[in-house]
Design a protein that fits this description.
With about 100 residues, the chain is mainly α. It has two domains: about 30 residues; about 55 residues, no CATH class. It is about 90% helix and about 0% strand. The chain has four helices and no strands. Helix 2 crosses helix 3.
Length: about 100
């Protein structure tokens, strides 16, 4: 296996761009005070990004994904523990996959 310079340059360039975007966002928010609207948007952004990543995966799993999502919501509402909620979702998908394999 050989290391090609163009591949290495692409990897290093993307790493630099990722760091610059992240650090640049922190630098801008330290230097300026966002408006109330921008602050409200930033507070809700992580949830929107999570839904954008999770929803296609849930749709691909069909009814098993829907059951897992309901289990995650129920456990999270009850315990407020991310670990327990994720564990419940994985357990539901795993259990339903085992049941489907038996039938």
């Amino acid at each position: 296996m050989t290391l090609r310079w163009d591949v290495l340059a692409a990897i290093l360039g993307m790493a630099l761009a990722s760091y610059a975007l992240r650090a640049g966002g922190y630098a801008i928010l330290r230097a300026t005070k966002p408006s109330r609207f921008a602050q409200a948007m930033l507070n809700h952004l992580p949830g929107c990004i999570f839904v954008a990543f999770a929803l296609p995966a849930l749709a691909a799993w069909g009814w098993k994904g829907a059951c897992a999502a309901l289990a995650v919501l129920a456990v999270m509402a009850r315990t407020r523990s991310y670990v327990a909620a994720i564990g419940a979702g994985v357990a539901v998908v795993w259990g339903l996959a085992l049941l489907a394999a038996r039938w």
